[in-house]
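@channel sequence for tomorrow's demo:
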Amino acid sequence: MKPPARILLIFALIVATVGCDRLTKRMAMTSLSGASDRSYLGDTVRMQYAENTGGFLSIGSDLAPSVRTAIFIIATGCILLALTIVAMKHRGANWHIVAISLALAGGVSNLIDRVTRGAVVDFLNIGVGQLRTGVFNVADVAIFAGTAMLLLFGFRKP
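structure tokens (generated this afternoon):
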């Protein structure tokens, strides 16, 4: 893919993913914050408002605020900058660009929460009975999807 098309693809994926995440988080803040949890499909899907000051599954939420800032804002910002450079310079298959862009977009949207709110807004939980995911958001799905694409298909020979 030529550089202008690559840049357009990266930009479109980031705008669409961040836009969707920001919209769903705004809806969660207005309709779920302070309200009781909502359950759908026989409690397979729960919508519950949570603010996560840590990372994945709230890991690090009990760290000192300065340490959380260093890890979850400064280090994450550096990683996202590196991902941007990789996405722009990568000469691999188009799906590589999609995977990197999804992970980048999810990271950017969660970083926006951390910088503006001090915590990431989460609102989705999926599971059956006691087997459940942690509470997550659309950005987390994008990060997971992009990373999974890279891990599952990134090591295959062309």
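heads up for whoever presents: The radius of gyration is 17 Å.
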